[in-house]
Design a protein that fits this description.
Order of helices and strands: EHEEEHEHEHEHEHHEHEHEHH
Number of domains: 1
Number of helices: 11
Radius of gyration: 19 Å
Enzyme class: lyase
Helix content: 25-40%
InterPro entries: ACMSD, Amidohydro-rel, Metal_Hydrolase
CATH topology: TIM Barrel
CATH superfamily: Metal-dependent hydrolases
Oligomer: single chain
Keywords: Decarboxylase, Hydrolase, Lyase, Metal-binding, Zinc
Shape: globular
Structural class: alpha/beta
Bound molecules: zinc ion
CATH architecture: Alpha-Beta Barrel
Pfam families: Amidohydro_2
CATH class: Alpha Beta
Largest sheet: 8 strands, parallel
Number of strands: 11
Pathway: Secondary metabolite metabolism; quinolate metabolism
Length: 337
């Protein structure tokens, strides 16, 4: 079966010292480990945020050959790479965030240049400024990016923010697919232990994004030509759709600006399949339909699918036809690969 992974991340091997260039602190950089003497293991590094260790990573993040070898190992034909959200710089002045977007977007294409038939990239944009975001996403598309990844909020602005909707309309007009990734998770002071920011905060963030798009009238206002996909199976959204629907029907204030009940909008967005559980995958297929789900792994991070594609391939309930849609054909259509 053909396999296309739409949710994987890259980090360039090195880039200029952003703290030195712009001042301030908390800039991302990679601290590389001493090379393995026999060179038998992939190189390791620590992704740093200023002086703080953020996440241990290995060379699949920046070395296309390591990535391609592991794709071969697991039978992945194509992979779409996107930035790690720590590179977004949404809280910096727009000139600095625009500079970072160009820097990392060009670096992504450089990684993909190793095999342009198998590796594809999503761009990042300085989402704190909508004009600059529209300029950068159009530039990136012209350079070869197959879509754009955005963080699911900018500070207190959710997906129904006027500016974010303007950006989404621009993407719809230019036929640029959008992938929404959770980041900068809510309740960080109460989820700092046990990786709860990732296991609890991220799914809640994504649910919040889809709900705000629906109830904020986002899907009513933006053209239905918009291609938009939310990460991690939509987080908590599918499981809690009944609760949302019940509230919409029985409380006026829970309707927000949406013209229709929440379930009406399920044909307006896609979700990836990074849910790591067959029952959860079955629920997504049941709620969203087999046309609106695309295989995603979160490779090469520790919370990603360790053997890429296994969840879908080993499903006892999905037909081969559905599996093929989820594993590749939906993504090839969505991203025009
Ligand atoms: Zn991810």
């Amino acid at each position: 079966m053909k396999v296309v992974d739409i949710h994987s991340h890259f980090i360039p091997k090195e880039w200029e010292n952003l703290q030195k260039k712009f001042g301030g602190d908390g800039w991302p950089w990679l601290s590389h480990s001493e090379s393995n003497v026999n060179n038998t293991q992939p190189e390791k590094a620590m992704l740093m945020k200023g002086k703080q260790a953020f996440r241990p990573v290995y060379s699949a993040c920046w070395d296309a050959q390591v990535r391609l070898d592991e794709m071969d190992r697991d039978g992945v034909d194509k992979q779409i790479i996107s930035a790690t959200p720590i590179l977004f710089a949404y809280d910096r002045p727009v000139e600095q965030a625009s500079y970072c977007a160009q820097l990392f977007n060009d670096a992504a294409l450089d990684i993909c240049s190793k095999d342009t038939q198998r590796l594809f990239a999503l761009a990042q944009v300085p989402l704190q400024n909508i004009d600059a975001s529209c300029i950068e996403v159009s530039r990136a598309k012209a350079c070869g990016h197959v879509g754009v990844q955005i963080g699911n909020h900018v500070g207190e602005k959710n997906m129904d923010d006027e500016g974010v909707l303007t950006f989404l309309q621009h993407c719809a007009d230019e036929d640029i697919p959008v992938f929404v990734h959770p980041w900068d998770m809510m309740a960080s002071e109460r989820t700092k232990d046990y990786m709860m920011g990732w296991t609890v905060g991220m799914p809640a963030e994504t649910q919040l994004s889809i709900v705000s798009m629906i109830l904020g009238g986002g899907f009513d206002r933006v053209s239905d030509t918009l291609k938009i996909c939310f990460a991690h199976g939509g987080g908590s959204f599918a499981f809690l759709l009944g609760r949302l629907e019940n509230a919409w029907h029985h409380k006026d204030i829970a309707r927000g600006k949406s013209q229709h009940p929440p379930s009406h909008y399920l044909n307006r967005f896609h979700l990836d399949t990074a849910v790591f559980d067959h029952d959860a995958l079955d629920l997504l297929v049941k709620k969203m339909g087999p046309e609106r789900l695309m295989f995603g792994t979160d490779y090469p991070f520790p919370l990603g699918e360790q053997q890429m594609g296994q969840l879908i391939k080993t499903s006892a309930d999905l037909s081969d036809q559905t599996k093929q849609k989820l594993l590749a054909s939906n993504a090839e259509q969505f991203f025009s690969l």
